[in-house]
Give the backbone structure.
Amino acid sequence: MKITNLSKLIVAIFCLIFFNSCKNEEKQSGSSSEKVSTETASEENKAEEAPVVLFFGTSLTAGLGLDTTEAYPALIQKKMDSLGMDYSVVNAGLSGETTASGLNRLDWVFKQNVDVLVIELGANDGLRGVSLKETKSNLEQIINTAREKNPEVKIILAGMQIPPNMGEEYTSEFRSLFPDLAEQYNLELIPFLLEGVAGDPKLNQEDGIHPTAEGQQILANNVWKVLKEDL
């Protein structure tokens, strides 16, 4: 009889130890899950808080005829990632975009906070012979709106040139429009986005206007020379 009671006591102690062990495992498991969840949330918040570099432009920015990963904004993102720079690039390029249509979609562009704005607009205005006064006015409104949204925003203006189809006077004034605006509004200036690419058949697609993947790499270098100073 005593042996039986002793057996029951041993069984009871064993059960108690087993029960407490299970509780400890559950507690440790719960702590691990909470840790993973916290780390995941932290990474997501970090991604959301990463400063935004937004490229607002035409088909040159959109990478017409190429995969978006070959367009210069994506190449800039790759460059920053390789340097461990915590920035998020947004490609807001749209084929056929003029300064007027760009002005009309500002609400969409500035739905997110923009820390660095690269404006690549005006080329289609020039090719269509749009009044330079109108082009300048549209660009000014875009610049002012960006600063209203974020007074600390850094703005880079991409300079552009066009063939002499519209006459020497228009072509010359168009070329001067960008450095003049950059000086007036204290903007960083990319002297000529297509420097080293324009007019080279090997670096342009069949239309002679839009860069190849290799040409886009040169555009990325042209942009990076100026952009890196603002990051």
